[in-house]
Design a protein that fits this description.
With about 425 residues, the protein is of the alpha+beta class. About 20% of the residues lie in helices and about 35% in strands.
């Protein structure tokens, strides 16, 4: 089908590519051991992009009828702005493992059994336990008129464990995403994390009166990193509000921070050997010792900005192309969690933030704390309630006091705990 579409536009366009994606998703929710919802979704998308007379046009379908796409894409190009888009040529792909055969066999019964095994690890009197599971299998195929004809199979398993203690209403949760089926060690890690959260939350405490250090656990850190990661993606003109400048030798973040993007990791949901633009991927250092070395850019944005694409292209069936990271890895430090808590003395440990709706322009933070704890005398004293994290993400990441050695996956980001000096916690 890809070859047929390319052949149909070959005489009417200077270049063209076709992206075909498939996905079959099964989602399941358990509440106190009973299945409360189950849903299956199947999707297939085809996108034809053409370059005609120096202009780019695209057409897409999700119903399998690709016959109208050539005419629609040519018509779209006639209305498009001039863009010097050069499609990539063919190149060898790295052998990246993105699919697990066992994952593809998971059905409702298997997902239910997996959820019950996890729930049994945290079952106690006085608790309400919810487990949300998702299994996806699919494929990506990209071909173009310069000889690219490649793709990969993908699988995905996501599990979220949510435990509410009915006596005080405290909610603890942990999320896991991977390509293969989680083993007992992975389930044990989820359960252990939730138990620690609940144990620390047995008593109530107030945040410090004066601003002290804030220890961000990986899930909370991922929310604070949002403005920084957005600034590392080129979407057009660089934002004058971002302090991050690519290619400067001096650091604009704390010198202890090194961040890389690695699409070649085995069995990680963000991995891929080729991006949705047909560009071969490779591991890249984004930030080294606090200095920004590279930003991510997709093929079209790069063409408009006069920059080479970085292998980060993402395309949905009907959305505009954009750049997105694969697997982000923030370099670890030397202290374990107990050492971080002891070193920070008096401050607040934040396990989880209540979303990212409180992110403002230029990295401003006003984020409710979903689960946080008072640290006093180097020990966790109890949970703080009604607290809000305040500060600026860019400023805070220039004042890193300590980095933990034990990293956790938060979605497609492998992050350590981080102690930051220039953040405040109000309320509680």
């Amino acid at each position: 089908m890809i070859a047929s579409l390319l052949e149909r536009v070959a005489r009417r366009a200077e270049a063209a590519d076709v992206l075909v994606t498939t996905d079959e998703t099964l989602a399941l929710s358990l509440d106190d051991g009973a299945v409360v919802s189950a849903a299956a979704l199947s999707e297939r998308g085809t996108v034809l992009r053409v370059v005609r007379e120096g202009r780019v046009g695209s057409a897409a379908t999700s119903d399998g009828d690709v016959d109208p796409l050539p005419a629609a894409a040519i018509a779209a190009a006639a209305c498009g702005d001039p863009l010097p888009l050069l499609l990539p040529g063919a190149s060898p792909l790295p052998p990246v493992v993105t699919h697990d055969a066992t994952t593809a066999t998971l059905d409702v019964a298997a997902l239910t059994e997996l959820g019950l095994r996890l729930a049994a690890r945290v079952r106690r009197d006085g608790r309400r336990i919810a487990v949300h599971l998702e299994r996806s299998v699919g494929s990506v195929r990209i071909g173009n008129t310069r000889g690219v004809d490649a793709g990969y199979e993908a699988s995905f398993v996501a599990i979220e464990l949510v435990v509410q203690r009915t006596a005080d209403g405290v909610i603890a949760s942990r999320h896991l995403a991977t390509v293969d089926v989680p083993d007992d060690a992975a389930l044990d890690a989820l359960a252990t994390s939730v138990e620690r959260q609940l144990e620390w939350a047995r008593a109530s405490a107030s945040p410090p009166v004066a601003n002290g250090p804030v220890l961000l656990m990986p899930t909370a850190l991922r929310g604070v990193l949002v403005p920084v990661l957005d600034a590392l993606v080129i979407r057009g003109e660089p934002s004058p509000m971002s302090p991050l400048v690519e290619g400067l030798e001096e650091p604009v973040l704390h010198p202890s921070l090194t961040l890389r993007d690695d699409p070649w990791l085995e069995l990680r949901p963000g991995s891929r050997g080729i991006d949705d633009d047909g560009v071969t991927t490779w591991p890249q250092l984004l930030v080294e010792d606090g200095a920004v070395l590279r930003c991510a850019v997709d093929l079209e944005t790069g063409a408009a900005a006069g920059r080479p694409a970085t292998g980060h292209g993402r395309r949905t069936t009907f959305g505009r192309p954009h750049a997105a990271f694969s697997n982000l890895l923030l370099a670890p430090g030397e202290l374990d969690l107990a050492g971080l808590i002891s070193a920070m003395g008096d401050g607040v440990l934040i396990e989880r933030l209540a979303g990212t709706a409180g992110l403002g322009p230029a990295g401003a933070l006003h984020l409710p704390v979903a689960l946080g704890y008072r640290v006093q005398g180097g020990e966790v004293r109890g949970r703080v309630e009604g607290a809000v994290l305040l500060g600026n993400a860019f400023d805070a990441l220039t004042a890193v006091a300590a980095i933990g050695r034990d990293r956790e996956w938060v979605g497609s980001a492998l992050l350590p705990p981080l102690v930051l000096e220039r953040l405040a916690v109000a309320g509680g």
